[in-house]
């Protein structure tokens, strides 16, 4: 026996037509995602970025994990297995400023602004970080300090993967400046008679404890 349909052909046609209209109405009309510029090749031209290139430059301060292995002195602080006693490039005032900025970010929490090992981390009770103002650390080479930053030292974590090569050398230069700042004598004052006389008359010659305490107090006030 032939099966009887519950709805007539006309009714079914009407339902299908209504569904079709409904689908058209609910489907999105915007084609933004479809029409957006697509950058399928790494070196394509594009007007999306101001410089017209799809390839983006490295973000400033990117820490290279492999590109810098061309110069032993620069990238390891050693030549023939010995720590270098010189810097890989000339240290200018701007390099020192760069070193100061990086030191304040990465080293101050433990070593303190003066490099005396009394940073916040130490004051909160963690392992005492080294004080740079000891005869031994005043005597180490720039290559050695670079190596400590890059590969760590005993309890100190290595920073090679997190601080760029240039920033690490700039920090070494700034550590040297910090060491000098606590140890300079009146003979180190540049040719300036008035300044020299003032120094000899009463300025403190070495970074004795009293000076360090003062400096720390002003550090706390900041
Ligand atoms: C999280 C804390 C911490 C930070 C941040 C830190 N250090 Fe250290 N550093 C230490 C500790 C702790 C020691 C002593 C390690 C030991 O003797 O076991 C040390 C030791 C040193 C030494 C002496 C090594 C020696 O031969 O005695 C130098 C130099 C040094 N740090 C430089 C730096 C510089 C530069 C930075 C910033 C890039 C830095 N440290 C960041 C904790 C830190």
Explain how this protein is built.
It is elongated, with a radius of gyration of 33 Å. The N and C termini lie far apart (97 Å). The longest helix is centred in the first third of the chain and has 18 residues, at 9-26. 46% of the residues lie in helices and 2% in strands. The chain has helices at 9-26, 32-35, 72-76, 93-106, 108-111, 120-123, 135-139, 142-151, 165-181, 193-201, 209-221; strands spanning 78-79, 82-83. The chain has a domain at 72-184: Cytochrome Bc1 Complex, Chain D, domain 2 (Orthogonal Bundle), CATH 1.10.760. A hairpin with a 2-residue loop joins strand 1 and strand 2. Helix 4 (93-106) packs across helix 9 (165-181). It has a two-stranded antiparallel ribbon. It has 222 residues and is mostly helical. It has 11 helices and 2 strands. The structure holds heme C (HEC). Heme C (HEC) binds at residues 106-107, 109-111, 121, 127, 129-130, 137, 145, 148-149, 153-156, 159, 171, 175.
């Amino acid at each position: 026996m032939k099966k009887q349909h519950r709805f007539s052909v006309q009714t079914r046609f009407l339902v299908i037509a209504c569904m079709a209209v409904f689908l058209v109405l609910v489907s999105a009309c915007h084609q933004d995602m479809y029409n957006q510029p697509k950058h399928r090749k790494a070196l394509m031209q594009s007007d999306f970025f101001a410089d017209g290139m799809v390839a983006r430059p490295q973000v400033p301060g990117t820490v290279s994990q492999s590109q810098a292995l061309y110069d032993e002195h620069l990238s390891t602080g050693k030549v023939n297995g010995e720590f270098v006693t010189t810097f890989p490039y000339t240290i200018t005032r701007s390099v020192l400023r760069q070193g100061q900025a990086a030191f304040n970010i990465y080293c101050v929490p433990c070593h303190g602004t003066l490099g005396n090992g009394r940073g916040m981390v130490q004051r909160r009770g963690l392992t005492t970080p080294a004080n740079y103002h000891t005869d031994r650390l005043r005597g180490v080479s720039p290559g050695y300090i670079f190596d400590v930053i890059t590969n760590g030292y005993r309890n100190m974590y290595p920073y090679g993967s997190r601080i760029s090569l240039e920033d690490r050398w700039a920090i070494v230069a700034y550590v040297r400046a910090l060491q000098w700042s606590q140890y300079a004598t009146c003979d180190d004052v540049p040719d300036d008679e008035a300044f020299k006389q003032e120094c000899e008359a009463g300025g403190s010659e070495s970074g004795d404890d009293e000076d360090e305490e003062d400096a720390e107090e002003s550090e706390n006030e900041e």
